[in-house]
Input
Amino acid sequence: MAHIDGTHQAKEHQLLKKIDLHIHTVPTISDANFTFSLETFKKYVEEASLDAVAVTNHDIFDAAQFRLIHDSLNTVVFPGIEINVANGHVLLIGNVSQLDDFEEKSKLVSQKITKIGDSLTVEQLIEIYGELDQYLVIPHYDKAPPIRGDALDQLEPYICAGEVDSAKKFIRSIKDNTKPTPVLFSDSRMMTDLPRLPTRQTFIDCGEITLGAIKACLRDKAKVSLSEADGNNLWQVLEGGQKISTGLNVLIGARSSGKTHTLDEISATVEHTKYIKQFSLVQQSEAEYERDFTSEVERRRSVFVDDYLAGLKRVLDDIMNVDLDSRERELDQYIETLLMSAEETDRQDAFSKAALFDEVKFSVGNNKTLTSLIESVKQVIENIEFRGIIEKHIKLVDLKQLILELIDLLRERTLINQKYKLVNDLVDEIKQGLRLRTSATQINEIDIYEYCLDKKRVDRFCEIVESLKRESVIFEETLQGFKIEASKAPYTGAGEIKSASGVRTAFSSAFLEYSDPYRYLRCLLNNESLARSDLYKLFTKISYRILNEDGFEVSGGERSEFRLLQEISDAQNYDILLIDEPESSFDNLFLKSDVNKILKSISETMPVIVVTHNSTVGASVGADYLLYAQKEIEGKQVVYRVYSGYPTDKTLSSVDGKTIKSHEILMDSLEAGTAAYEARRKGYEAIED
Output
């Protein structure tokens, strides 16, 4: 049994040149270990019909191995290296004619980067390689780990392209004039038993393959594309050569024709895939489904809840260290010993009359606010996304001067605090000696100012918690007619608090103090089963409701509809979306009015593939590209073949040259054949008449 989805085209028929300038052949400290295979490299170059490749290992250049590869491959091979620069990666690709020089300079890189975490500065990179204009300089741009900030600015004059890791990001960069020309390379290890050949390459409109010619092409976005004949409309998704649209694809075919197999292959080939499998969102047990549904809604919006309660969390960090009971006892002891000391004034001895006997210690300052301010200014200085707006109002040089002055002030205050602590320790030591030698009553110390501040802190904390307990809606979000609503309210029982904590422990005694936030907090602190970092969740109950377009809570079926829309919307965080037969679980009206709309919208920014038998999806979604899977018998062998083309094409073609009529397969797949379609049409007309 075979699965045919592509063969390579002969190089002599190519109009554009196909290149992959990011290939690894030597395992380094930055790689998982692998065994290099020249045969795998040869196979890749041949089957992918590559016109040029570059060997780019992490922080190392093996000249002997490169010469072997260069002499063995039937394509242009460039020497290169992938270098850790400013905690990002940069491809530096040189000329074969200067191989010895490139080898000597790359050795200096290997000498400087010897362990994980080592990195060059841009200045060191230039110092080693000299004038970077003589190389192809291609940083990781929309790909981890990226080159950012000052390092990117310093490299900007030499950059000819920016590497991305998906077709989605390629299209995004091509359309954005502020971004460099994107290139999509395999970043693959040429190893023995490579599971599948890479599918990430870039086409350039280049005549003779030279370093200079490639550089000129890469600096012109109009000369770079994902496919040879279809520009950036199509891209190769499977190693055999099968292409799909960078927009919305519809995959149709009879049952057991290889549709799901095709999606599985794409999911295994393309990284960062969102795959919504058939029946995955259909509810089973009502109670179990509702519990899972609620848990999923809460998980997705947990970031909002954490942000909403961030203020309480910061207050708690301070209040947890305030022990008012202990403070009250200190105050009582202070007053008691103060009165006793006053009564014994006439009986003081030389030790109790010493100046340091009742000396008050220096108050040691807290630099927390100043430290936070320095971090905030640092964040403003390092921000790249909003730098234009920032510099419109504040000069970067002024911000740097500000942070230097704040750091100097922090050093000064830290030094003063250290002196205060030293003096306080000396005073404590002297006072202890005096107190051992006298019979006079010693006045217990207390910082009354701090005591009053603690009282105010507790009062303010209680006000904040009581405010958080008041019932109100704190968050609303709409999604295709549904509304997600988050609200806050007080806990009504110990069981609710236990559920929110996720810890198996009793909360009955703590709940008795729930009306007094501070007393309640002290009870929680006495429970060793609870993590202090999670206590902020136990003061107010956050609950969620999903409402339909009529304002009522969703039913079981509507929950499934909402989950599908949510899963599709979530796909924006991935590089491709695959959906297997959504009609298996939903009605046509929902599919047409909601699903089709959101699919079309998402496909404007990323590739989407929908498998369907349903004309509501297949015919009305407005596909950019059509794929048809068919099981065929060739001799005694079962072959799964994929035909593809644009929706307006009269015939669809497989990559091995076979064709099939579009109208015929559309009628069979979406309408159960022409006869059935005509019968339904006449039936609808009869009802209408």
